[in-house]
Design a protein that fits this description.
about 300 residues; alpha+beta; Glucose Permease (Domain IIA); 2 domains; two-stranded parallel sheet; 5 helices; 13 strands; about 30% helix
Length: about 300
């Protein structure tokens, strides 16, 4: 219990530092340097622009809301305009030189990662065409894309193109609170999962308990899941709710048929729907088959992409 509490606190701190404290610090530096040191202000502006670009593309905006994501670049532009130097001045002190070097280093670092994140948004031509497996709301991609910087699954051969889906609730955030322990406070918990394709159910498990965030069942990483074989591929939908699976192995399912409900079973830090596709037929949960890229309604979905679905 104590370990789970510590992990939850660390995740909260990481999100707040990356999405709130870091931008505030950069704005403060712009305000401090503007009136007295043009060259340092320009270097800090470069770092601020690079970081804003990176965090806007690769940040976890489902936590603080998509409205905050849209507001951050505007806040940085406003800060740059307000704090711009009124006259040309150069501070040759060692402290100013060190700050310029730090700002330049940070700027280059985040430019590189922004480029990697943008390249990770490009899809492959041979992607599997599927239908989005959720309805009745607006959903956001928590993990997704071809690059590790925007998709932690990208390092896994069989899950390279996997996506994690969250639902947006009030204020454009995924939950009522930053990181609540109550599963019911997550907008996606209990949502119906629909079959993204026609096919045959080749695996169906629904006996594992739903974990309380941030507890994880690392021994049974997929938790409750359904696997559907379709057109030479196997599609996995995982972290489902206990006792919610409505299909049986060997059953043929139609497009849009209800399969189960979203839960928080397996190696999951919070309620979400994980989906990935592997080439070939089902040979076991951890077969290591090559991953297949997926498109939903023609879209290759990556982190922070939103999907509006009908009721």
């Amino acid at each position: 219990m104590m370990k789970g509490y510590a992990l939850r606190r660390l995740r909260l701190i990481a999100v707040l530092v990356g999405h709130v404290l870091m931008p505030v610090w950069l704005i403060w530096l712009l305000a401090t340097m503007g009136p007295q040191d043009t060259s340092t202000w320009l270097m800090v502006l470069f770092a601020a622009a690079a970081y804003t670009s990176y965090i806007s593309v690769a940040g976890s905006w489902s936590w603080l809301g998509v409205y905050t994501q849209k507001a951050l670049p505007l806040a940085m532009v406003a800060a740059a305009f307000i704090t711009r130097p009124r006259f040309v001045a150069i501070n040759d002190s060692p402290q100013a030189a060190e700050l310029r070097l730090l700002a330049l280093t940070l700027g280059v670092y985040f430019v590189v990662f922004t480029i990697l994140a943008l390249l990770g948004r490009r899809s492959k031509a041979d992607a599997l065409e599927l239908v989005f497996p959720l309805k009745s709301g607006t959903y956001i991609i928590g993990q997704g894309g071809r690059a590790k910087v925007i998709n932690r699954h990208a390092r896994d051969r069989s899950q390279r193109f996997a996506i994690d889906i969250l639902k947006l609730g009030g204020f454009g955030a995924r939950a009522n609170g930053l990181y609540p322990v109550s599963l019911k406070k997550y907008a996606i918990f209990g949502a119906d999962v629909f079959s993204p394709c026609e096919g045959v159910v080749v695996a169906a498990v629904d006996s594992f308990l739903d974990q309380i965030p941030p507890d994880r069942d690392r021994k049974n990483s997929s938790g409750n899941y359904v696997a559907v074989e379709s057109n030479g591929a196997t599609i996995y939908l995982t972290h489902l709710m206990k006792d919610s699976v409505r299909v049986d192995v060997g059953q043929r399912v139609r497009l849009g048929q209800v399969l189960a409900r979203v839960g928080n079973s397996g190696d999951s830090t919070e309620p979400h729907l994980h989906i990935h596709a592997e080439k070939g037929g089902y040979t076991g949960q951890f077969s290591g088959q090559p991953a297949l890229a997926m498109r939903f309604g023609g879209r290759f979905l990556v982190r922070n992409d939103c999907v509006d679905t009908p009721v």
